[in-house]
Structures are given as C-alpha cells and as structure tokens.
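Example S7 (structure tokens).
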C-alpha cells in the first residue's frame, strides 16, 4: 500500500503511516530543505494554494491512501481537495489501521462511543490527529512543486499564533460538569500552588465558566502534561482523545464513571473533599 502524507508542523502522522505501510511518501506545506519528499516553491498560505499543491503532488504519486495532519490549513485544504475530486474524507481520526483489507479510521463519537469508519473511495482520504513534531529527514532529495499565489485570496496581515499555555504545562487541572462554580476559587488556588494550568471539557466552556481556548479534547486542543487532574469529568472519548499524560488523577463522586478505567489514581469522592489529598499526593510525587 502506498501512502502519501501531507503535513505542516505536526509530522508525527508520518510514524502512524509507517505503522501500516513501508511505502510512505511525504509532502510538506512549508518550503524546507530535507523535511519531505515533496516541498512547495513557496510556503502554502491559503486553502486554495493547498488544494493545488495536493492536487499536483497526488498526480505524481499514485497513492492508495492520503493522510492529512490535523492542522487548520491542512484540514481546510484537504476538505477542498475532497470536494473538488468528489472523494470521501474521514476526519477527526485518532488512529488508523487495516481491518479485513479495509482502511479504517477510529473516530470519537457521542458519549463514550468510537466509530470505525472505513474508506470506499480511492485514494482514501483521512485527517489524522497528531500534535507531535518529531525529528524527520527525507532520505532523498526533495522535489519542488511550483506554487503560485492565489488571485482569489489576498493575505492582508500575518502574525504568529500564540502558544496555548495548556500545551506546555507540566501539570494540568481539568474541570468537568461535576465541578460547582463555587469550587473554582479553590481549584485556582490549587493550580497556583502546583504551578499548573486549568483546562476544561466543552460543556463547561459552553456555560461560560472558562473560555473556549481552555477546552481539551476533540473540539479543543490536545495536551501532553506529566500529570493531568480530572475533576468532575466523566471520561467521554471526545475529551480524553486530547489527553496524553503520564499520570491521570480522576476525581468523581460516581463510582461507575468511565474515566476510572483510564486513570492512574482513581478517587471516588466529592471534588471539594479530594482537593487537599491531591495537593499532598503531587507534592510527594514531585520530591
């Protein structure tokens, strides 16, 4: 199986592609010396430019599967390409594998369900979640694809995107619907004591308790802290898909909460009762 991978910064998807095939060709949206087999003559800036680049590279590579990194410009370009070519596009996949000779993408669903979505078109198209940027060098001289600036879109201003503090935090405290508004000041105090950042599930942000840039999961950002403290979080796949932590401490008053099956330290208690114990446990662990 030949796989073509498009990425910008999150090239961790290349390893995912290599896990199911030895024939992987890479293409970068950024002009770089040896980061991919195909590179553009100019950095891709718009979905229209991205579509044209994808189209040109796909003509050079007869791929069975095209994987797109889960980055904003890549996603938009992939959707444009799929629409133009009338191909199916599996989006929000957290994992890819082969089953019964079919290309499968594992996609989070409602509550704690996951759907196996398989491709029927060729080439199969899939957006694969990965926030990793790893050391990767192409073994061959990259081929440059000529890119012309689109006349349909004009870049007025360009600025560096601010890094979300949750993504670099060693400790993250997650707030779910099981946390009362009156408990927020105590959690903020705990976060200050532990030098931690506070995130939340989407329903919490929808109520206005925390801003949307604090949402962790499928509709927010992905995090990789050493310790994740989940307070009043049930453990829905949409949220946990964005958590990659060494230790997960879960506090929930419901003894059957799904998150207990996926954590390092389960605490079946009310959030307010567990906060002092959590603070002490982390201090002991950090010694």
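Recovered sequence:
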């Amino acid at each position: 199986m030949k796989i073509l991978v498009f990425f910008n910064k999150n090239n961790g998807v290349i390893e995912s592609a290599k896990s199911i095939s030895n024939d992987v060709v890479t293409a970068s949206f950024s002009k770089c010396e040896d980061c991919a087999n195909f590179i553009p003559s100019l950095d891709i800036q718009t979905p229209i430019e991205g579509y044209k680049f994808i189209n040109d590279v796909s003509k050079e590579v007869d791929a069975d599967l095209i994987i797109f990194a889960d980055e904003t410009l890549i996603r938009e370009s992939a959707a444009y390409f799929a629409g133009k070519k009338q191909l199916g596009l599996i989006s929000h996949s957290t994992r890819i594998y082969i089953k019964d000779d079919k290309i499968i993408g594992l996609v989070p669903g409602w509550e704690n369900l996951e759907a196996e979505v398989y491709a029927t078109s060729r080439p199969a198209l899939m957006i694969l979640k990965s926030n990793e940027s790893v050391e990767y060098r192409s073994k061959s001289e990259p081929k440059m694809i000529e890119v012309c600036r689109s006349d349909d879109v004009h870049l007025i201003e360009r600025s560096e995107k601010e890094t979300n503090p949750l993504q670099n935090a060693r400790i993250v405290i997650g707030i779910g619907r099981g946390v009362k508004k009156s408990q927020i000041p105590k959690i903020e105090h705990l976060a200050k004591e532990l030098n931690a950042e506070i995130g939340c599930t989407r329903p919490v942000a929808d109520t206005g308790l925390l801003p949307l840039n604090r949402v962790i999961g499928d509709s927010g950002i992905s995090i990789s802290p050493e310790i994740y403290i989940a307070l009043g979080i049930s453990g829905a796949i949409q949220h946990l898909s964005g958590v990659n932590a060494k230790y997960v401490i879960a506090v929930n008053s419901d003894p059957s909460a799904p998150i207990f099956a996926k954590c390092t330290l389960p605490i079946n208690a009310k959030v307010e009762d567990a906060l002092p114990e959590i603070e002490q446990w982390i201090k002991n662990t950090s010694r």
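Notes on this example. The CA atoms of residues 20 and 97 lie 7 Å apart.
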